[in-house]
Amino acid sequence: MSPNNRMEYVTIVGDSFEEVAEECRAQGLSEKQFSIVAPINRHRLTTAGAEARDVVVATYARPAQA
User: Fold this and answer.
1) Distances from the Cα of 56 to the Cαs of 5, 12, 27, 33, 66, in angstroms?
2) Average pLDDT, stretch 20-44?
3) For residue 38, what are the CA distances in angstroms to 3, 49, 59, 61, 65?
4) What's the pLDDT at 65?
C-alpha cells in the first residue's frame, strides 16, 4: 500500500451492541469522517496469556490524516 492510500482504524470493543454504538457516538467518529468497516458483530476475543471472552466489536476507518 502506498503512503497516499494509508488508512486509520478505530476498533471499539464492548459487551453489547448498544454499548459499542454509544461509544462510537461519544467519540464522534462520524463527525471525524470515520465509516464502519463491517457490521457490529459478536467476536471471541483472545489475547496472549489470557482467557478468551465473547465481546461485541465494531471497526471504523478513514483515510489517514496528513
Assistant:
1) 28, 8, 17, 22, 31
2) 95
3) 24, 28, 7, 10, 21
4) 82
pLDDT at residue number 1:
46
What nine digits make up the cell of 28?
464522534
Tell me the pTM.
0.81
Nearest to residue 10, comparing CAs of 19, 66, 28?
A: 28
User: Which is nearest to 60 in space by CA: 2, 15, 45, 26?
Assistant: 26
- Which helix (H) or strand (E) segment holds residue 4: the answer is none
Length of the chain: 66
User: In the chain, where are the structural domains located?
Assistant: 9-38
Provide the pLDDT confidence category of residue 5 given band limits of 50, 70 and 90: confident
